[in-house]
């Protein structure tokens, strides 16, 4: 098998009951300033004549209640704007710039003498061979890989099989050949891990750049901690 992917949220009792009901409503959608005013009227009707509430205090409450609906509307609008902006940044790819991501694919760029992939084997293998191919399809490095089923990380430092250190830049492809004890190929998949260095919007599709390699935004699997 050769595993290779294409890149690309009473009165006292009455007052107590009203307070409890309003408190419960405040935690749900649909509450308005009129609800608060109704509660205040209830409190005025049931206050002690010997100890009436302070007039200034109630005036302050009236002002606060009058502005409640406006404050709520502003909060909802800000939440909507934030959500829209976040969605736009994500779909356009701008939010990925500078982030280390994992994307579906097998071709990446050698940057700072490092290229990283993961490869997944669908079942245990008797033998696994890892090949790194250059842009011309020539094998520049080969070695043995993990044989257990599951996902494995692989990092290459840009050194060829014969010990030559390759310069940064260019693109290299990971190819996995895994077989079972009967010599049959084992299926699997590969991903690329790297820091997004740019965004190509020259075509209809926004392409993330990891060095010289390009990936579709739709191929991003996750953002990794730096």
TrEMBL record:
Source taxon at top rank: Bacteria
Record bears the keyword Lipid biosynthesis: no
Annotated segments matching region Disordered: 1-27
Domain FlgD/Vpr Ig-like stretches: 110-181
InterPro entries, A to Z: FlgD, FlgD/Vpr_Ig-like
Any one Gene Ontology BP term: bacterial-type flagellum organization
Keyword vocabulary terms for this entry: Bacterial flagellum biogenesis, Cell projection, Cilium, Flagellum
Protein's job: Required for flagellar hook formation. May act as a scaffolding protein.
Family: Belongs to the FlgD family.
Protein name: Basal-body rod modification protein FlgD
Natural source organism: Roseibium suaedae
Lineage start: Bacteria, Pseudomonadati, Pseudomonadota, Alphaproteobacteria, Hyphomicrobiales
């Amino acid at each position: 098998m050769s595993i290779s992917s294409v890149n690309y949220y009473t009165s006292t009792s009455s007052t107590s009951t009203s307070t409890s009901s309003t408190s419960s409503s405040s935690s749900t959608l649909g509450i308005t300033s009129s609800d608060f005013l109704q509660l205040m009227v209830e409190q005025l009707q049931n206050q002690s004549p010997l100890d009436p509430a302070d007039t200034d205090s109630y005036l302050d409450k009236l002002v606060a209640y009058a502005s409640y609906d406006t404050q709520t509307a502003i909060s909802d609008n800000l939440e909507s704007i934030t959500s829209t902006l976040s969605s736009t940044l994500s779909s356009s790819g701008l939010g990925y710039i500078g982030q280390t991501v994992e994307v579906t694919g097998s071709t990446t760029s050698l940057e700072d003498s490092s290229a990283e992939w993961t490869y997944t084997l669908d079942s245990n293998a008797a033998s696994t061979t890892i090949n790194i191919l250059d842009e011309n399809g020539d094998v520049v490095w080969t070695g043995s890989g993990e044989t257990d089923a599951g996902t494995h990380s692989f990092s290459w430092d840009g050194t060829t099989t014969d010990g030559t250190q390759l310069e940064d830049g260019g693109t290299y492809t990971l190819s996995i050949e895994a077989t079972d004890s009967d010599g049959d190929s084992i299926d699997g998949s590969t991903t690329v891990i790297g820091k997004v260095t740019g965004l190509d919007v020259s075509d209809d599709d926004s392409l993330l750049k990891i060095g010289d390699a390009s990936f579709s935004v739709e191929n991003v699997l996750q953002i990794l901690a730096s």
